Every structure is written in structure tokens, then in C-alpha cells.
């Protein structure tokens, strides 16, 4: 018999609940176990499972949108923006995002249901969690209900919880039975209206973060981040195996069919001459690796691209191909890509490919070369400084001189920042700015406009960052000369300076 207070099933002979000790009253006949008409919990009607599903979908959409913000931040924090604008969402960024969402969802559901009896999704559709006695769940019951999701989710997508809810008179999933709660209809216009308002407000706040990333006033963009990557198609499968005591087939490593290619198409490139800003793509094959008597192989590959001065453009790209070989001397097919930053010097570059055959106990080094041309070389800076400041009429527009605008237009500009100091390949910059009007009054003051604390593996003496910004001029902007003033501090070098630039509003 089901306890009317906590919902726990008891034996037919029990007079009191084994869980809460409440009186069970007289036993009902079998045909009276489920009363006719709607089932009520402390006078409240039960929510349908479909309405609860709708609430879950709304909460999931909210958390998914938040997850996108987190993954963008994590990818920028640990991987950095790539030359094509894409972000690497693997490794640390992916793990951080997954763990963050688990923690956020747990506390979101627990705290919201403990305090309000409903998440934003539940409030949106007009349902609420209550104890079967009618009171609010409180922190203990809400925690047990949240903890029960670990079982309800099995084997996937809350299937077990859905089955328990369908078979329960009070539509209780496992978490509800553990906590003695049920989901009821909250027929209150004010309750539902509050849910809709706060849900849309949360969605708008997340959307605002997207907007800030897309078009943030005076946003800084680092356009020189290098990136290396590659893919392996080895023809191998299965787990690595073998014994050190068994003889291996001889190894005669060789690089074959090397070609610089045009992008992802894989077609050989007509020339090995590149310009700064290009992506260098290459493909090649490795043959002659050894295998043990079981036919297994293990080949480690490390590729480092170096400039004419021997500096690496990025950290080495590494991959190990291990497993059962297809035999017959099937070569390992590999590809590689590296971006050439705008400050890369002219000269001969090398792809230093090191191959270690761990089965055949052999190694090989190969160094295909290519040429880079930089028609506008940048001289190294001896101290922190700004160069090539340009005003424009659009984000990608041509420089204008003199810089003249009209009220209602947008002022776009860009400049290069050079001479910062590195500590363990990391820069630590802080930028503040002010906008002064024609009369000298401060119209905008952003003391904490932007901070950059990031790692750049490749930073030759002429390394620079590109800073882009813009201002929207209101329709009531008065004519005159306006001054942009930047206070730029290099925390690694303990140095700072002020830079000013003016433009006219007609």
C-alpha cells in the first residue's frame, strides 16, 4: 500500500508507513487502489508527464545556451582563437565545460526547487515540486530529489525515471519517491508570469553575452595566434600489443609522396612559396616501419615548423599510430597545417618531421622546406609602442585621412601594439581608455576596458598584436574634435604609456 504522506510502498499488512511512521488507515480493496477521477496531492492536481517534459526541455535549452558561453570562454582560455576564426573544443576546454555544466545544473535544480519549488522551466509551464503532504520541498528533500536523477537517467534520457512515473499513482519518478515529493499543477497566473519573465530575462542575459562577444565596444582581437594540426590515417586498428622479447620485422623508415597542398582539397600546390597570413598545408606518407610477429606496429610522429632563425612557430604537433597493421607495407598517411602570422620574416622555413618506430627500434628525421615572402616586414620595437593607427568607415574598410565623420555614423579604427615583454611565453597587458569631447570633458571612461593574459608560443622580436575598435556616434553628437586616449600597461615589463588620437565630427 502506498503511504499517503511520503508515497513509499508498504506491504499489504502494514498499518504504519515503514519510512515516515504515518498511519496507513484501513486497507482498500484491490479495485479501490486507484481512485476514480483525478489524483490529488494535498489538494493539488498532478502535473502531466508531458508538461514536465516541456519544462525539462526549457531548462535544457537555457543550460545549453549557457554551455556555449562557457565553451567559448574555455576554448579562448586554453586553446586560443584559430586563424580561421574557429575554436578548439577538445581536451581541457571540453572537460572544463562538461564539469561546469554538471555542477551548474546540480546547484541550479537543487537551489531553485528548494527555495521556490520550481526551476525556471517548471515555473514557465506552471508546475511546482511539493512534498506529498503539501509543503514546499526544502533543501533536504530537494537534494534527495536531485540526487535521484542519477538513477532516473538510466540507461539514458531519463528512461527509468519515466517508467517509474508512468507506473506511479502520483507520477513519481525515483527521485520523487526518495524525497517524498510530487510535481503538482500550480494554477496561478502570477506564478507562471514570474516564470516566463525570469526565464526570458535569463535567456536575454545569455544573449547579451553573445552580443558582447560579437560586437563589444572597443573589443580587442588578437589576429596572430598560430595553430598547428594534423590528421592521421594509418590503416591500423585494435589495441597496441606485442612482447619485447619477440623479434620484430626490420624497420627502414622513409618519407614518400610529400606534397604541399591547396587547403583541405588535398590537391598538390603549384609552388612552395607562401605569403604571411597563408595557411601551409602538407600531406605525406611514412613507409618502412617495423611490425612484430603479431603484425602490430607503433610509430610516433612529431612535427615542428621553424622559421629562418630556427624559432618554432608553435609547440610540436605529436601523434602516435599504434595497433594492428594492414600488412603489405601499407604506408601511414598523414597531413599537417600551420598558419603564418603577419610578422613572420621572409626566408626558408622547414617542417621538421621526426619519426620514432618503437617496434623496429629505429628513427628518422625529415625536413621539407618552403619559402615565405613578407612584402611589409615589421621592425622590432625596443619598448611598448603603438604603430599604424588607422581610422576607417567600416570594420574591414580602407584607412581614411583626414578622419572625418558625421553624427550617427560609426568610427572604426585599428592599430598595432608592439614591444610587450613575455614571461614563460605569456603576455600580461592591461588597457584603459577615455573619450574626450571638443570641450575636454570626458564622455567615456573605461579604466578596465581590456586585459590580455595569454600564451603565444611564437614571439620573435617583431611580434605584435592587432587591436580593433569602434564607436557609435549618437545622432545628437556635436561637431568638433574628439580625442581617444589609451593608457596601455605591460605588467611583465613594468612599463606603461599613454597614446592619443583625434578625429573630427562634422
Structure description:
- The chain has 506 residues and is of the alpha+beta class.
- It has helices at residues 49-78, 92-115, 120-125, 138-147, 149-152, 159-167, 174-179, 189-214; strands spanning 40-41, 44-45, 127-131, 181-185, 228-233, 254-261, 273-275, 279-287, 296-306, 317-324, 332-339, 347-357, 362-366, 369-373, 385-392, 404-405, 410-418, 426-436, 442-455, 464-472, 480-490, 495-505.
- The chain folds into four domains: 1-34, no CATH class; 38-214, no CATH class; 228-373, Immunoglobulin-like (Sandwich); 385-505, Immunoglobulin-like (Sandwich), CATH 2.60.40.3880.
- It contains eight helices and 22 strands.
- Strands 7, 9, 10, 12, 13 and 14 form a six-stranded mixed sheet that branches.
- 27% of the residues are buried.
- Residues 26-34, 80-86 and 215-249 have low confidence and may be disordered.
Provide tags for this entry:
single chain, 506 residues, Immunoglobulin-like, six-stranded mixed β-sheet, five-stranded mixed β-sheet, 23% helix, flat
Brief summary of the model shown:
The chain is of the alpha+beta class and 506 residues long. It has eight helices and 22 strands. The protein has four domains: 1-34, no CATH class; 38-214, no CATH class; 228-373, Immunoglobulin-like, CATH 2.60.40.3880; 385-505, Sandwich (Immunoglobulin-like), CATH 2.60.40.
* Helix coverage percent: 10-25%
Summed over residues and divided by their number, the pLDDT gives a mean of 82
Record field, number of beta strands = 22
Computed structural class = alpha+beta
Tell me the number of structural domains: 4
Count of helix runs: 8
What proportion of the residues form beta strands (DSSP E)?
25-35%
Question: What is the helix/strand order?
Answer: EEHHHEHHHHEHEEEEEEEEEEEEEEEEEE
Amino acid at each position: 500500500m502506498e503511504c499517503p504522506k511520503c508515497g513509499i510502498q508498504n506491504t499489504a499488512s502494514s498499518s504504519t508507513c515503514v519510512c515516515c511512521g504515518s498511519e496507513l488507515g484501513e486497507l482498500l480493496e484491490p479495485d479501490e487502489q486507484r481512485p476514480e477521477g483525478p489524483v490529488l496531492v494535498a489538494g493539488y492536481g498532478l502535473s502531466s508527464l508531458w508538461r514536465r517534459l516541456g519544462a525539462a526541455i526549457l531548462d535544457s535549452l537555457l543550460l545549453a545556451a549557457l554551455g556555449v558561453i562557457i565553451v567559448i570562454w574555455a576554448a579562448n582560455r586554453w586553446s586560443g582563437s584559430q586563424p580561421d576564426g574557429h575554436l578548439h573544443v577538445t581536451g581541457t576546454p571540453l572537460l572544463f565545460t562538461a564539469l561546469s555544466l554538471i555542477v551548474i545544473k546540480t546547484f541550479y535544480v537543487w537551489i531553485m526547487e528548494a527555495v521556490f519549488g520550481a526551476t525556471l522551466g517548471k515555473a514557465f509551464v506552471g508546475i511546482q515540486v511539493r512534498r506529498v503532504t503539501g509543503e514546499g520541498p526544502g533543501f533536504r528533500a530537494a537534494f534527495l530529489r536531485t540526487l535521484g536523477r542519477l538513477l532516473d537517467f538510466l540507461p539514458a534520457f531519463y528512461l527509468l525515471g519515466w517508467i517509474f512515473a508512468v507506473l506511479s499513482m502520483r507520477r513519481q519518478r525515483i527521485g520523487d519517491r526518495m524525497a517524498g515529493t510530487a510535481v503538482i499543477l500550480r494554477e496561478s497566473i502570477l506564478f507562471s508570469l514570474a516564470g516566463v519573465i525570469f526565464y526570458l530575462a535569463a535567456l536575454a542575459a545569455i544573449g547579451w553575452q553573445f552580443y558582447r562577444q560579437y560586437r563589444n565596444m572597443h573589443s580587442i582581437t588578437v589576429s596572430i595566434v598560430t595553430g598547428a594540426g594534423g590528421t592521421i590515417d594509418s590503416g591500423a586498428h585494435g589495441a597496441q600489443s606485442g612482447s619485447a622479447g619477440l623479434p620484430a620485422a626490420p624497420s627502414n623508415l622513409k618519407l614518400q609522396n610529400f606534397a604541399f597542398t591547396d587547403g583541405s582539397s588535398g590537391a598538390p600546390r603549384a609552388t612552395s612559396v607562401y605569403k604571411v597570413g597563408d595557411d601551409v598545408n602538407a600531406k605525406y606518407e611514412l613507409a618502412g616501419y617495423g611490425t612484430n610477429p603479431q603484425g602490430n606496429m607503433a610509430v610516433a610522429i612529431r612535427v615542428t615548423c621553424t622559421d629562418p632563425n630556427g624559432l618554432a612557430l608553435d609547440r610540436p604537433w605529436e601523434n602516435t599510430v599504434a595497433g594492428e597493421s594492414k600488412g603489405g607495407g601499407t604506408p601511414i598517411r598523414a597531413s599537417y597545417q600551420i598558419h603564418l602570422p603577419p610578422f613572420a620574416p621572409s626566408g626558408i622555413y622547414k617542417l621538421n618531421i621526426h619519426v620514432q618506430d618503437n617496434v623496429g627500434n629505429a628513427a628518422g628525421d625529415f625536413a621539407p622546406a618552403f619559402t615565405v615572402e613578407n612584402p611589409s616586414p615589421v621592425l622590432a620595437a625596443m619598448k611598448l609602442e603603438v604603430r599604424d593607427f588607422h581610422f576607417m568607415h567600416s570594420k574591414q574598410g580602407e584607412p581614411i585621412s583626414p578622419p572625418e565623420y558625421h553624427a550617427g555614423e560609426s568610427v572604426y579604427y585599428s592599430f598595432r601594439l608592439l614591444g610587450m615583454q613575455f614571461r614563460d611565453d605569456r603576455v600580461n597587458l592591461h588597457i584603459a581608455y577615455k573619450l574626450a569631447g571638443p570641450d575636454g570633458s570626458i564622455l567615456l571612461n573605461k579604466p578596465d576596458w581590456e586585459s590580455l593574459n595569454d600564451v603565444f608560443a611564437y614571439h620573435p622580436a617583431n611580434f605584435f598584436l592587432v587591436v580593433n575598435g569602434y564607436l557609435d556616434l549618437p545622432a545628437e553628437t556635436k561637431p568638433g574634435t574628439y580625442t581617444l586616449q589609451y593608457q596601455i600597461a605591460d605588467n611583465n615589463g613594468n612599463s606603461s604609456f599613454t597614446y592619443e588620437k583625434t578625429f573630427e565630427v562634422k
